[in-house]
């Protein structure tokens, strides 16, 4: 089995070492520009077009992340880039669901318990008790009920606030009130106090976090975006903060990453910024999952996590 690896800004030697341990029979190499030698599998994160275009030898491309928007972007810009012979397979959880649950739960509890406001009071040396938010109306809405969104929704629900979830097809999840499809979008949003976005970025979901969406939420709602920057209309968020429709936001992803130093979000104290770290790709878990799937594919078996290219996730 021949495997090509490409992951910029990573410790490629460590990845290749772990793959070699998991698949001792494999012939592994880091892809370099100009390498067109045949391979069975490509393991990639944000690969250049040149690596994949015209490679009819590949059986599968393993994306070293949950989101496949970057790699599908190559196909949208230039149809035919992704080899027809190859399935595109994304990571499924590999430790990301727990990280997302930690990140989103932390933000939700910070807003519920008003820690940001207590921090401001502390900076002013003021000892003041704020009225608690009533838990029963502190409704959390989770956009996307896939591998990550489902775990996040259940983790938040454990704290007793009402939790809603929104997906494309109907889902049933214990303890979560679920909504599906565009026809139920407004009902999902109605009166939500914290909106957490875990949708994939597709032609259907781009710009979903906009003025209209914010207007359906409770006045003074909170926004958490851990999916993709392309989901958020940035100017709409700044206006919603100015009007008080949105009280504060926690953002992990941005249209331009790294966020440029002159971006207005840096100046806005009500926006918490993290550098796309809400759920990192963990090497050990990812190598184990990808190696298991490669072995299954070589045996002619089917595997989960295959991306529907038309649907975009
Ligand atoms: P997933 O398993 O594919 O789940 C996607 C969910 O979104 C599904 O519930 C799906 O509905 C729903 N959905 C897709 N299109 C929709 C639409 N048009 N309307 C309504 N619902 C729609 O994805 P995942 O593994 O949970 O990951 C979600 C995203 O998180 C990734 O695509 C990635 O962008 C982001 N992410 C970010 C980080 C980070 O560090 N910031 C890390 C990992 C992932 P169905 O259930 O009906 O299919
Ligand atoms: C990270 O953003 C991922 O999609 O895994």
UniProtKB/TrEMBL annotation:
Its EC number is 1.1.1.79. The keyword DNA repair does not apply. GO terms for molecular function: glyoxylate reductase (NADPH) activity; NAD binding. Transmembrane segments: none annotated. Residues 107-278 form the D-isomer specific 2-hydroxyacid dehydrogenase NAD-binding domain. Coiled coil: none annotated. It comes from the Bacteria. The keyword NAD applies. It is an enzyme of class 1 (oxidoreductase). Keywords: NAD, Oxidoreductase, Pyruvate. PANTHER family: 2-HACID_DH_C DOMAIN-CONTAINING PROTEIN (PTHR43333), D-ISOMER SPECIFIC 2-HYDROXYACID DEHYDROGENASE NAD-BINDING DOMAIN-CONTAINING PROTEIN (PTHR43333:SF1). This is Glyoxylate/hydroxypyruvate reductase A. It comes from Paraburkholderia sediminicola. The gene is ghrA_3.
């Amino acid at each position: 089995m021949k495997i090509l690896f490409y992951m910029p800004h990573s410790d490629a030697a460590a990845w290749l070492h772990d793959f070699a341990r998991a698949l001792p029979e494999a012939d592994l190499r880091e892809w370099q520009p100009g390498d067109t030698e045949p391979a069975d599998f490509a393991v990639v994160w944000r690969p250049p077009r040149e690596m994949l275009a015209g490679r009819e030898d590949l059986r599968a491309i393993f994306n070293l992340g949950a989101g496949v928007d970057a790699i599908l972007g190559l196909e949208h810009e230039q149809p035919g880039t992704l080899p027809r012979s190859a399935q595109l397979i994304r990571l499924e959880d590999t430790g990301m669901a727990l990280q997302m649950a930690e990140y989103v739960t932390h933000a939700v509890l910070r807003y519920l318990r008003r820690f940001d406001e207590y921090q401001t009071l502390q900076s002013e040396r003021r000892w003041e008790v704020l009225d608690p938010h009533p838990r029963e109306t502190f409704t959390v809405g989770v956009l996307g009920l896939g591998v990550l969104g489902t775990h996040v929704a259940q983790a938040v629900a454990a704290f007793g606030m009402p939790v809603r979830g929104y997906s494309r097809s109907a889902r049933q999840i214990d303890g979560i009130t679920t909504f599906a499809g565009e026809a139920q979008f407004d009902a999902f949003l109605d009166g939500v106090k914290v909106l957490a976005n875990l949708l994939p970025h597709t032609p259907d979901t781009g710009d979903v976090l906009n003025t209209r969406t914010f207007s359906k939420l409770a006045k003074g709602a909170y926004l958490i975006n851990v999916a993709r920057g392309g989901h958020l209309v940035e100017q709409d968020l700044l206006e919603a903060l100015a009007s008080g429709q949105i009280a504060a936001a926690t953002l992990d992803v941005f249209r331009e990453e790294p966020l440029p130093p002159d971006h207005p979000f840096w100046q806005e104290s009500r926006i918490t910024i993290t550098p796309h770290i809400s759920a990192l790709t963990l090497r050990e878990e990812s190598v184990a999952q990808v190696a298991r799937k490669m072995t299954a594919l070589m045996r002619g078996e089917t595997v989960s996590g295959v991306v529907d290219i038309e649907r975009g996730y």
